[in-house]
Design a protein that fits this description.
mainly alpha, Amino acid/polyamine transporter I, 2 strands, 69% helix
Length: 522
């Protein structure tokens, strides 16, 4: 590493050779992240404490006690897609992940849009995570100071909110700009703390149930794990869409594949382990809270709309008593940690897009000191910050509807990547039982589920009552925002095709013939 010149780092090639249509290194620091570090960063990106406190209530309102069943159902397509990602990573460990794999399977146009889906989704989430971190920071200070909401309310002043949000974004950008070893060290503490608090919270809730001191003690039943007990297909779809969102983010470990030890195997294994750990954690938390509070509309019931936006906050005092502040601290830690680790994904995707000439060459710049995608990291942070600031002052409903539209983007690029796995390995489907399951059946089923969810969400979001209820000319704002994000990608792609035709002719990154892949893997 020390012998690499800054020129080679800037061009993104270990050898300084030009990109010629095949996969090539980009100057990132190889061998920096191990298996444990990758899993920790993956869990951090998913942000279980933040994600579940925001999504558990709405999921209960849709499916009641069947939340564990919906979590399991939502987990399945994520696992199936993760297995497809693993196969693609074994064949092509490239930091561009969905973008690169989409190009290799389907060509530059679909590949470019797959990369756009990943970047757009993560930039939207970056802004939202910063906003959540601000709210929980003031909430924590309020709890510790005992000001009964006076300090917490400051988070809803748009000027204060945006100013503190930008400070969070600045801190996350500084850490992300540095090498991944800095990220790992920070995440070990942040992730460890939030997981410890969540487990403590769940155990304490179950102890209350056992002691008869729970708000609305409900014995755990097998029906909680039965999705067919929901009854209404629409409720299953709505709950499943929420469940897909709570698992999103595990693919960040794949974008670090050029920086991991054993890049062909470690990222794929880490992604699978991440999904499994998070699924277990979600099931533990949901079961304990359902058993403690029930699904009624009483003061602390999970069906009470007044507490659904922040379940952990309202239940923290009844469950943990004087240690209730730990929950707010855990959610703050979760959102702040995820803010930093989520920035890893779009920066490395943008780096790859710049490296293969699908975007301006400036995106291919690698920090000569830290060997990280410095320019792409800064651009991601600036765009996310600007997006949040504008949306916050424009309308809070617009901001949250954009987050709701995120579900469509997740299904969009995850689904395309799953189908890329199926098509890329089409000459190997029947080489062995393993090939049949891992390169055809599993990613195909996962991709179809996500595609169906994408279409259903797209159709449902046309309803003006969808999301916040905001609409333009009778068309739901969530639909308009989701379609606008995708069409914006199409417009930018066409502009890049005019400015940088070499990539779109397959000269800088071409489709790989299945026959050549087959020979290389023998």
């Amino acid at each position: 590493m020390s012998g690499r010149t800054s020129t080679e780092a800037q061009t993104g090639s270990l050898t300084g050779e030009p990109v010629t249509g095949t996969l090539s290194k980009k100057g990132l620091s190889a061998g920096t992240v191990g298996m444990v570090g990758a899993v920790v960063i993956g869990i951090s990106t998913i942000a279980p404490a933040y994600t579940l406190t925001a999504s558990l209530g709405p999921t209960v309102s849709e499916v009641g006690f069947q939340v564990p069943a919906i979590i399991i159902v939502g987990f399945l397509p994520m696992l199936l897609v993760a297995l497809g990602y693993r196969e693609l990573n074994r064949a092509m460990p490239d930091s561009g992940t969905s973008f690169t794999w989409g190009v290799r399977a389907f060509g530059p146009w679909i590949g470019w849009m797959t990369g756009w889906g990943l970047v757009a989704a993560t930039v939207i989430v970056l802004s939202n995570l910063a906003g959540i971190a601000v709210e929980f920071l003031f909430l924590l200070i309020d709890q510790l100071a005992g000001t009964d909401g006076a300090i917490a309310d400051l988070a809803f002043n748009p000027f204060i909110n945006v100013a503190v949000c930008l400070l969070f974004m600045l801190g996350a950008t500084v850490v992300s700009y540095r090498d991944l070893q800095t990220t790992q060290k920070l995440q070990y503490f942040l992730v460890g703390f939030q997981v410890l608090v969540l487990v403590l919270f769940s155990v304490a809730a179950l102890v209350h149930v056992a002691n008869g001191t729970a708000f609305d003690a409900s014995p755990v039943e097998l029906s909680w794990f039965n999705p067919f007990a929901v009854g209404d297909f629409g409720a299953v779809v709505a709950g499943l869409s929420l469940s897909i969102f709570i698992f999103w983010g595990w693919d960040v470990v794949l974008t670090m594949n050029e920086e991991t030890k054993n890049p062909e195997k470690t990222p794929g294994r880490a992604a699978t382990v991440t999904v499994l750990i998070v699924a277990g954690l979600y099931l533990l938390i949901s079961i304990s809270l359902l058993a403690f509070a029930g699904v009624g509309t009483g003061e602390l019931g999970l069906g009470n709309e007044d507490i659904q936006g922040n379940v952990f906050f309202y239940l923290s005092d009844p469950v943990l008593g004087p240690l209730a502040f730990l929950v707010s601290l855990a959610v703050l830690t979760s959102s702040a940690a995820s803010l930093q680790s989520t920035a890893v994904g779009p920066a490395r995707t943008l780096l790859a897009m710049g490296h293969y000439k699908a975007l301006p060459d400036s995106f291919a710049r690698v920090s000569p000191r830290f060997f990280t995608p410095g320019y792409a990291t800064i651009v991601s942070a600036v765009v996310a910050s600007a997006f949040y600031a504008v949306m916050r002052f424009l309308s809070e409903n617009v901001l949250w509807d954009t987050i709701t539209a995120l579900g469509m983007m997740i299904c969009f690029y995850y689904g395309l990547t799953a189908f890329a796995c199926v098509w890329y390995f089409r000459k190997q489907w029947f080489d062995s039982a393993r090939s049949f399951f891992f390169t055809l059946l599993f990613p195909l089923v996962g991709g179809v589920i996500l595609a169906v969810l994408f279409v259903i969400t797209l159709i449902d979001s046309i309803d003006p009552d969808y999301g916040s209820g905001s609409n333009i000319a009778g068309v739901g704002l969530v639909f308009i925002l989701g379609v606008t994000v995708i069409l914006a990608g199409v417009v930018i792609m066409i502009w890049q095709a005019i400015k940088r035709p070499a990539f779109f002719r397959g000269e800088t990154l071409g489709v790989e013939a299945p026959e050549s892949l087959r020979r290389s893997r023998r």
